[in-house]
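Reopening this ticket.

The earlier resolution said the output was attached, but the attachment link was broken on my side. Pasting everything inline this time so it's all in one place.
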Amino acid sequence: MSNEFKQQGRRTPLEPDRLRSEVADCTGCGACGNICPRDSISFPPDDHGFFKPFINPDTCIGCRACLNVCPILHPEKRKRKHHVNKHYYCAWVKDSAVRVSSSSGGIFTPIAEYILRQGGCVFGVRMDGGDSPHVCMAETPEELVAFRGSKYLQAGVGDAYRQVKAELKKGRLVLYSGTPCQIGGLLAYLGKRPDNLLTIEIICHGVPSRTAFDKYLEDFTEKGREKRMPESVNFRDKRNGWIYSQYGVAMSWKDCPESYSQLGHDLFLSAFLSDKLLNKCCYSCRYVGLDNHLADFILGDAWMIWKYFPHWDIRDGVSAVITCSERAEQILRNISSEIVLKPVPKRLILRHNPALMHHKELPEDREQAFEILKQQGIRAYLKAFPPQPPPNPWKWRLTHPFRWSLNIVVRVYEHFFLKG
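Inline output:
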């Protein structure tokens, strides 16, 4: 094939593993696949279940566009052109149904619905049953529902960046929500930050392995369920509340009872939070540090906020919101009637969301951990690497009696004297 290309005066195709070998810390952001003029790049999972680029030498024309667009190889593509002032908030949506069905305070939904009301479109991640999550476009409020909630797996980008570019060219307002590395990949692909593009990045703990989730599902098969994918997966079910990290994983199965297991008892969450099964690039993440976040909004959980404001209505979730542009501030003003927005000191957000500032250290026994997982299953893995126990809510209540008592008094006062 290479001789044929040389005879035609064209460049030699790149080797199939060229991107994997040259970009050691590849995030699988999808910028290379979207910019390839011949669709020569696919993203099959590697040995640990993470999407990595593979070049088809039969169609590759050797243009090197994939290498030139990579935000990991070209750090300048990950830098903002000017300093931005950030503002820090705790917030939640007033619609209780939206709030309960969201991972934290549900702030994504009113932002996205505002974009739709302006005639725009929204790109987010949906997960159909146990299949891998993927990025897609929504143009109606009904389609936004699938974007709610955390998907603790790597999402396939597909041709989403091309779709974003096409919608931007039409002059539409576009909102893209994803991980920090996906935002970096999108901006690298576009080559600029268009005025009609708004971005949301989630506070990312790291991307866990699909292999771990598959082993998790195999464990359900051993419990008597037929070997098949669940019809729905909710990684952040809040039936027991959000406060004190009391969420759990709920899955529904055809002709089988729903399964639910809370944090501290759920095998997949325990494996994920052990921090040994993350994508390798997560241990050297280029997007940690406040100056390296590229989105207009940063959204996550306002963890431990109950310690500082116990009288707030926090049981069903509170979002940590960081605005990184004037456009983001303007949108919050435009949706102010739909949300509760409370400015907070910067330290309250950063202290309890360390992933904003620091990445995890690469475990020396990571390869051993994957070997045990793949050969012996998820229970053997957790036996070999026991997880840290989740926080005990009663320990906090007993060690902070004044705050807990104050919370009760304030809530009773609000209920009887401030109702309506």
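Reporter confirms the inline version is readable. Residues 50 and 284 are 16 Å apart (CA to CA). Residues 1-9 have pLDDT under 50 and may be disordered.
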